[in-house]
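Lab intake sheet, docking and co-folding queue.

SAMPLE TYPE: protein with bound small molecule
LIGAND NAME: zinc ion
LIGAND FORMAT: SMILES
REQUESTED OUTPUT: full 3D complex as structure tokens
PRIORITY: normal
SUBMITTED BY: R.K., bench team

The fields below were copied directly from the construct record.
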Amino acid sequence: MSPLTGKGNVVSDAEDLARLGAQLYQRGLVSSTGGNASVRRSSTVLITPTGRSLADLSPEELVEVDSRGDATGSGRPSKEVPFHLGIYRARPEVNCVIHGHSPYAVAASTLLSPHPVNAFPVYTAGYLARVGRLPLIPYFSSGSAELAAAVSEVATGDTKAILLQNHGFITVGDTIESAFNTADELLDALTVYVITEGRAKPLYEADAWPKQKEIEVSA
Ligand SMILES: [Zn+2]
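RESULT FIELD (auto-filled):
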């Protein structure tokens, strides 16, 4: 099993992750006991626990897991540990992973077709800068090895966000703030798509993505 050691010198503490949980809840990016978030430590990952709302977690409730996904202390980690670890292994620069079941993300995921590179049109320059492209993977059961494998396949390169059909979204960042801002921007774009029933006029259609890389963006 490859180690989890990343590139970064960003070490987030439990207070930072607990605060992120509250922010995600307040923004409507997670609800009930759904969704989870994690940060990379030097050779382990700190992740939110299973079966608890992210709204009011105490730092002591967060669970540290090793490279196999086993808790190093007390507490039971989110069942989505496998895809969190897969992303950290694939992306040494990533230090935070967020996953939520926002209704706009679920709604948009059911209206769009899976695509490994980009499934979503671009409506604003801010989205292009912050999120860029959005792979969409088909439905797999929560916590399954199949879901983790599908996520790892598209979480490569410059991927900052992934949509999971009939499930939700994932965002990643080199810092907690970056992963949160990407989720925040993504939710706005998915909301535009859903409230206009996909009829909003985009700046770029989803299949125009390869050309977008050549476009200068200031946002
Ligand atoms: Zn989920």
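REVIEWER NOTE: DSSP finds seven helices and seven strands in the chain.
SIGN-OFF: pending second check by T.M.
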